[in-house]
């Protein structure tokens, strides 16, 4: 399971700007206009000032002390799970400054920036594929693509959107709070009894999000 720092008491800064949410970073940078690194004093306001002084409309903070600016998001950056952003700002510990490869994203517009997902086949809906086994420890994952975790807000729809934006058409939910994506389901994963997938989703108690070493598996079609 991927581990993310989740600090429940930390909230996004309430400044004269719009908070868009927690977004994924990409290897070539989601925001490429300018950057400011300050692991001792970074705040949302410091990042905002740096970026707006350079006439950029969007800014984001990452890893606690990194600030990035731009006027658009690069392809591959899209909304992540809220708890992925949990690192306190060193200059204001009451606010969040992103996380590992995650941006707390802000901007001057009330409308969130347009995102361009990773390429994938045209699809319109999800189809439930049943309860499936996870692979034994050391043998990888039943769904070996991207992954996410949310102890408090995982839903089937959010996992599906996250995986589709990542370019994957298969997705599965496990342990009530884990989301896994893949191009296909590993052939060593086997069908399990539906009663094995019995854990409610952390963000929707009326829905099931897998179980112990069991995945509620879906496919975009």
UniProtKB/TrEMBL annotation:
InterPro entries: Sialate-O-sulfotransferase, WSC_carb-bd. It comes from the Eukaryota. Residues 1-16 form the signal peptide. The keyword Repeat applies. The keyword Isomerase does not apply. Keywords: Repeat, Signal. PROSITE patterns: WSC (PS51212). Residues 16-109, 125-221 form the WSC domain. SMART domains: WSC. This is WSC domain-containing protein. It comes from Corynascus novoguineensis.
């Amino acid at each position: 399971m991927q581990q993310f720092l989740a600090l429940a008491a930390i909230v996004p800064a309430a400044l004269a700007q719009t908070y868009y949410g927690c977004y994924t970073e990409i290897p070539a940078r989601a925001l490429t206009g300018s950057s400011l690194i300050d692991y001792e004093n970074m705040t949302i306001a410091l990042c905002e000032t740096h970026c707006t002084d350079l006439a950029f409309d969007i800014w984001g903070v990452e890893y606690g002390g990194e600030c990035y600016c731009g006027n658009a998001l690069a392809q591959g950056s899209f909304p992540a799970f809220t708890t992925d952003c949990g690192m306190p700002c060193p200059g204001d510990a009451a606010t969040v400054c992103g996380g590992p490869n995650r941006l707390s994203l802000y901007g001057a517009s009330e409308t969130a920036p347009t995102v361009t997902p990773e390429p994938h086949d045209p699809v319109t809906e999800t189809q439930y594929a049943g309860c499936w086994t996870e692979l034994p420890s050391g043998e990888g994952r039943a769904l070996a693509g991207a992954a996410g975790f949310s102890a408090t807000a995982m839903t089937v729809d959010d996992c599906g959107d996250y995986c589709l934006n990542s370019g994957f058409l298969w997705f599965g939910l496990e342990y009530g709070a884990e989301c896994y994506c893949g191009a296909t389901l590993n052939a060593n994963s086997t069908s399990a009894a539906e009663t094995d997938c019995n854990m409610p989703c952390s963000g929707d108690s009326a829905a099931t999000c897998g179980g112990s070493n069991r995945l509620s598996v879906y496919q975009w079609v």
